[in-house]
Amino acid sequence: MAGRKQFDIATALDAAMIQFWRAGYADTSVDDLSRATGLNRSSIYSSLGDKDTLFLRCLERYSTRYGDKYDAALSCAADRPLAAARAFFDITLERIADPGLPDGCLVAQTVMATPALSASVAARAREAIGLQHTRLRAALKAGRLRDEAADSFAAHLAAVNQSLAVMSRAGASPEQLRAVVDVTLDALARTLGASDGDPSGASD
């Protein structure tokens, strides 16, 4: 029975996460969450917490799920930094292309809704955004970019990644999103090539 309950909670958390992701925190009511999860209000409160607590759990679930994927994509950065950056963006593009998921990014839309959030939720969303920069900076430093260049490119790549989510919600096509990524990767390739003393750019 314990295993069954855990499975049901995991399923309910995924359903709640999709609801928050699709409609946003402010426009999601407890009744919406009840319909999404199949749980009545009292079960939501007793098993998943109040709206703020549940949203934080969903935000943590989202951040961990995609954070692990981003970390895996960037794991080859020391040997193949450009390939790592491409794999990083592929995670986002594949998520956007998945018809079973809402457009955009739960973290990005949460940060944009900061005025409607509690202090704890807003702080966790900002922390998730900051972690994106941190992981990219570490990967680029491993890929032999110096501190200043790694910091600047990490900020740029993180900003592009978030813009892909916003553009997808605005109706940008997969081809348009890929073109944005290609321009970014081309600039990174030139910078990596220059750091290696290769004016033609990195080739991985």
Compact summary:
With 204 residues, the protein is mainly alpha-helical. Helix content is 75%, strand content 0%. Helix 4 (51-73) packs across helix 5 (81-97), helix 7 crosses helix 8 and helix 8 packs antiparallel against helix 9.
Features:
75% helix; single chain; disordered C terminus; 204 residues; mainly alpha; 9 helices
Structure description:
The chain has about 200 residues and is an all-alpha fold. About 75% of the residues lie in helices and about 0% in strands. It is built from nine helices and no strands. α1 packs across α4, α5 runs parallel beside α8 and α8 packs antiparallel against α9. The protein is elongated, with a radius of gyration of 19 Å. About 30% of the residues are buried.
Q: How many β strands by DSSP?
A: 0
Kindly, what is the distance between the CA atoms of the first and last residues, rounded to a whole number of angstroms? 50 Å
Strand content: under 5%
Mean pLDDT, nearest integer?
A: 90
Q: Return Rg in Å.
A: 19 Å
Global geometry: elongated
Structure class: mainly alpha
Helical content stands at over 70%
The parts where pLDDT drops under 50 for at least 5 residues are 1-7, 199-203
Biggest sheet features: none
The succession of helices and strands, N to C, reads HHHHHHHHH
The number of distinct helices, counting runs of at least 4 residues, comes to 9
Write the layout of secondary structure elements.
Blueprint: H1 2-23, H2 30-37, H3 41-47, H4 51-73, H5 81-97, H6 106-112, H7 119-142, H8 147-169, H9 174-195
Helix pairs in contact: 1-2, 1-4, 4-5, 4-7, 5-8, 5-9, 6-7, 7-8, 8-9
